[in-house]
Amino acid sequence: MSKNSNFIRFVLSLYKPVKFLTIVMVISMVISEIFDLIKQYIIKGIIDLPTASNFQISDLYKVIIILLVVIVLELIFFYISNITRTIYMVKQQTPYISEKLFKNLDKKGYPFFVNNFSGKISSSINEINDEIVNLNTLITTGFMSLLTSMISSLIILYTIDINIFITALILFSGIIITRLIYFSQKYLPLIQKSQEANREYIGVLNDSILNFASLRVYGSVENFSKMLKNKKQETNYFRNKASAKEFTYGAIANIVYVITFAILLYYSVNMFSKNLMSLGNLIFFINAMISLKSDTTLFAWSYIHIGEAFVKLKNCYNLLYDDTNLLDDTKESIEVVKGTIKFDNVSFKYTKNYVFQNFDLCIKEKEKVGIIGVSGSGKTTLVNLLFKFYTPQKGKILIDNKDINNYNTKSIYENITYVPQETILLHTTIYENIKIAKPTASYNEIVAAAKKAELHEFIEKLDDKYDTIVGERGIKLSGGQRQRIALARIFLRDSKIVIFDEATSSLDNNTEFKIQQNIHKYFNNQTIICIAHRLSTLKDMDYIVVIDNGIIIDTGSPKVIIPKYEKVDFLKNNDV
Ligand SMILES: Nc1ncnc2c1ncn2[C@@H]1O[C@H](COP(=O)(O)OP(=O)(O)OP(=O)(O)O)[C@@H](O)[C@H]1O
Ligand SMILES: [Mg+2]
């Protein structure tokens, strides 16, 4: 299936819960326009009525009553269309779209999130919602309504005079067709560029605001303001260029229109003076020409904006529904019973330089393994590979003797509990932050987990206790408190493999000791990998592996390894 038809199917899928409402919205707008056409005929009748031979004033009253009924019906259908669009459609469609797009992110692989600004992703989701609301307005009050209105005006001209009808048909279809071609080719590509630049701008803006405190500390606010100004200017440049083209084209179309109108006006006044055209028809003609002019302009305008909305939707669709970097959902799920881990002859590089070459590591069931090594030696990369965040260029990684490459990534996540090096907290309560590790957890389970992570006492002292909001990325908490929330999460999980990546590095010795005790108590039957720079963290491990430049340079019990490497500062990038 071609990319375009997939895109159209995607746009149609956004209308799934509002199919009936969409029909109501469009049809009632068309009906309202048809009543407008009838209304104009009645007005023409009123103008010509007094000149009829058997005219009676009671006829005039009858026609006026019909006119009023038609006006009321026109308004009723107009309101039905507008209320359906602005209230019921928005109410049902936008939440559906948000949910659908967010869920779709779950299909994306890890590199998608590493390679794109979070602001770019979120603004794409938001833009799709905004553009669909916009599209609904443009299609009903713009496109459909104007199309019906233009057809009505042409029907009117046809009934007045065939010459006027043909001239007007050529004039206005000429204006519309040239305008549409012109804008598809010149205007829309510029809008696309402007939108790409704008999403880039929003990405940088979000990133800068997220890191504003750091920018200020380092005196970089000024620089970033300038950069944002430039980025905004870039988006304006394309948009201004597009608008300039729109104005030039509009001016040319207006000149052609005025000349043609003047000729037709001369022709019809001439007909009227020879009694070949009634006064009603003359007024009708002038009225139809004026409304055709504004309708064609607005029609082209709504076409351009519909085109613009589609360009924006397509851009967002390309980012969110790009079929590279997808998770391997179709593969079967892994079932981990023992929790053994094996890196078998693994070579891996992120970009140019290999982090690992022919790397072997074998961890048995229920073994507790410590990993140490200088910064950048590849410790976190080992976890990234085990989690299938990245795929090694060579070799295999086996869990329970099963090649993880043959199993879907989500099932790997379900079987490994991981405390990452960077604690990631959401801007919500402490309670919700712990709960993300197990959405079905009860209040008591959360409290129990917090107690095991030495966090409960601290939480109880807070004004809002478990309902305390942690701030964006947990900014209102200390580094150690944040880490303890991350640690509380693991006590909610039940998996055969548990990995700690510098999980206790921000804790004081006493708290770390207590948590370590709990870890050993509650994860007695699990395989544990513990990455640490502070060697004392690893004293209860079965053995410690020392890595340098992606190579295992030493292995041994904590009793042997800790004294041997105690003098080496693993936080500095010196040789081991
Ligand atoms: N996403 C990435 N893209 C490209 N290179 C990366 C990426 N992540 C890490 N690297 C590089 O891979 C190498 C190993 O990084 P890794 O994070 O595994 O080190 P580490 O041993 O965990 O270090 P630390 O002790 O500082 O956490 C480093 O040279 C790093 O710059
Ligand atoms: Mg690391």
Describe, in plain words, how this protein is organized in 3D.
It is a single chain. With 576 residues, the protein is an alpha/beta fold. The chain has two domains: 3-16 and 89-320, Up-down Bundle (ABC transporter transmembrane region fold); 341-565, P-loop containing nucleotide triphosphate hydrolases (Rossmann fold), CATH 3.40.50. The chain is 62% helix and 10% strand. It is built from 17 helices and ten strands. The protein has helices at 3-13, 19-48, 57-105, 110-115, 118-160, 162-210, 212-217, 221-273, 279-320, 379-386, 409-415, 430-435, 443-452, 456-461, 479-490, 509-522, 558-565, and strands spanning 341-349, 354-363, 368-373, 394-399, 402-403, 416-419, 497-501, 527-531, 543-548, 551-556. The strands form two sheets. It has a six-stranded mixed β-sheet with strand order 6-7-8-3-9-10, with helices on both faces. A four-stranded antiparallel β-sheet has the order 2-1-4-5, with helices on one face. Strand 4 (394-399) and strand 5 form a beta hairpin. Mean pLDDT is 87; it is low at 571-576. Bound molecules: adenosine-5'-triphosphate (ATP) and magnesium ion. The site of adenosine-5'-triphosphate (ATP) has 13 residues, from helix 10.
Protein topology:
Blueprint: H1 3-13, H2 19-48, H3 57-105, H4 110-115, H5 118-160, H6 162-210, H7 212-217, H8 221-273, H9 279-320, E1 341-349, E2 354-363, E3 368-373, H10 379-386, E4 394-399, E5 402-403, H11 409-415, E6 416-419, H12 430-435, H13 443-452, H14 456-461, H15 479-490, E7 497-501, H16 509-522, E8 527-531, E9 543-548, E10 551-556, H17 558-565
Helix pairs in contact: 2-3, 2-5, 2-9, 3-5, 5-6, 5-9, 6-8, 6-9, 8-9, 13-15
This protein binds adenosine-5'-triphosphate and magnesium ion.
Magnesium ion (MG) binds next to helix 10.
